[in-house]
Amino acid sequence: MLTILHGEHHLQSRRVLTQTLASAQNAGRQIAHVEVKNLESAALRISVQTQSLFAEPRTIIIEELHSLMKSKRKEELIKTIVEFADLDDVELVLWEKKQLTATELRQFPRATVQAFLPTRSMFTWLNALSGQQHDAVKARMLSLQRNAVDSDGEQFCFAMVMRQFRMLMEAKEGQGAAGQNFKMVAQAKLFTWSQLFFIHKQLLHIDLMQKTSGSSFSISSQLELLAVAM
User: Fold this and answer.
1) Which of 1, 151, 168, 183 could form a disulfide with 119 if both were Cys (CB 3.0 to 4.6 A apart)?
2) Strands 58-63 and 2-6
């Protein structure tokens, strides 16, 4: 059997992966993590077909297969996974940190697929971020942020807003370049460089404080203070 866990909501997908591993352990299954960086189809085939002395069923975790560049090796790995997808004594679990496209998912017609995606509240908040100083704008930002935290959790919100400001800085630096995301460029124009540098520095500070237990405030509280200070 084959299960695919994919999408940008890594906290949720990792939680499900951990639950899957716990269930496998409780069921007495062999568990193996397979690194894809240098994995060849023949080695994966051996890993799937090799049984323990007691012929225990196996759970094999393969992470970030789709991070590999398009190549013959990647195609062969996918073919091998599809070939063994129906084995009763082998559970294959693909974990992907990105959301797979419909085309990518069609390569695994018999897979059980679970997608872990940010909610609409998350994207509404991220897309509305602005460097404008009006009180009404700040009040709206706080409201949207709280909705996003309620729906997606403060840790995921923090990870996504860090990512958003990195992309905004890249967009502002490369304004007008070929292949630019025009929506991101338009949003970047709502910030000055000094605002972007200040916000990015504050986000890095929040990250450090959380990792070192250097703050008594929650992540969401610190994000709210930052929203007011923008």
Assistant:
1) 151
2) unpaired
Contact 61/29 with Cβ under 8 angstroms?
no
Query: Which amino acid, one-letter code, is at 63?
Result: E
118, 27 Cβ separation under 8 angstroms: no
120-229 placed in CATH 1.20.272: yes
Q: Is CATH 3.40.980.10 what the domain over 2-115 is classified as, yes or no? A: no
Q: What is the pLDDT along the chain (230 residues), one digit of tens a residue?
A: 899 999 989 888 999 999 999 998 898 888 888 888 888 888 888 878 766 555 678 899 999 999 998 999 999 999 999 988 888 788 999 999 999 999 999 999 989 999 999 899 999 999 999 888 788 888 888 999 999 999 999 989 999 999 999 999 999 887 656 567 788 999 999 999 999 999 999 999 998 888 887 677 888 888 888 887 77
Closest to 192 measured CA to CA, from 126, 119, 130? 130
3-class DSSP state for residue 214?
coil
Is residue 177 exposed (0-12), middle (13-18) or buried (19+ Cβ within 10 Å)?
exposed
- CA-to-CA distance for 150 and 104, rounded, in angstroms? 31
Beta-bridged to residue 91, according to DSSP, are 59
Other CB atoms within 10 A of residue 124 CB:
13
Q: Determine the Cα–Cα distance for residues 25 and 41; give it in Å rounded to an integer.
A: 26
Locate the domains of the chain by residue range: 2-115, 120-229
